Amino acid sequence: MKRFVWIIIVGSFFLLSSLNTTLGQTPKIPKKTPELLTQGKKLYETNCAPCHGAKGDGKGPAGVVLKPPPRTFNLPLSQWTYSKGELKKVFEVITKGTPNTAMVKWDHLSEQERWALVYVVTEFAAPPKKK
Description:
This protein is an all-alpha fold. 49% of the residues lie in helices and 0% in strands.
């Protein structure tokens, strides 16, 4: 009986530790593919362009009335307020939204769809300034 209890305890520990690492982490970044970009462009046009604009400049028809205004994606990626150039952080903003703004969470989209959006919005970023 003691052996059975010990197996349950050890098995539960491994199960909980694996859940903690998978649930608490941003998923692995997928490879950027033409198919993913195509999917992301369609999603962007439908869901993001109304606020962020077709050119990613934050001047979409709905965005002009928002306070604070929507993020412009035209800055160098390293200058983006929340992500500072990290794709996983862009993914996190898309997934969780941004507090005190009109940027809602898009966690109802699949993981692949959110990564597709990450690649599309980062394509609007200006190249880094040369020193």
